[in-house]
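User: tokens in, sequence out, please.
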């Protein structure tokens, strides 16, 4: 039975998602100690910083929605009673 040995992650500060580099040598014969890459999953997270309150927030979106957030753009949002941003309330800041 295959089990999870480790989880690789990649992150960045740009809009160019990429998979992490995984260094696994494939086995020619499946036996004890062999490793293989498992299921790939992705999360697209936008991080927000409230300059006035010095708080950081984050929201996970689909890739298509994530791509609509420009680096350095400003947004307004509601924050719930637990201090988490309500991601569905985000609106571009009108100046």
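Assistant: Sequence out:
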């Amino acid at each position: 039975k295959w089990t999870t040995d480790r989880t690789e992650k990649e992150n960045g500060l740009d809009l160019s998602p990429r998979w992490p580099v995984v260094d696994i040598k494939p086995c020619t014969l499946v036996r004890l100690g062999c490793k293989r890459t498992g299921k790939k999953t992705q999360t697209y997270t936008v991080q927000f910083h409230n300059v006035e309150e010095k708080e950081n927030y984050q929201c996970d979106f689909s890739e298509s929605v994530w791509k609509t957030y420009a680096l350095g753009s400003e947004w307004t949002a509601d924050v719930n009673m637990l201090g988490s941003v309500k991601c569905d309330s985000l609106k571009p800041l009108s100046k």
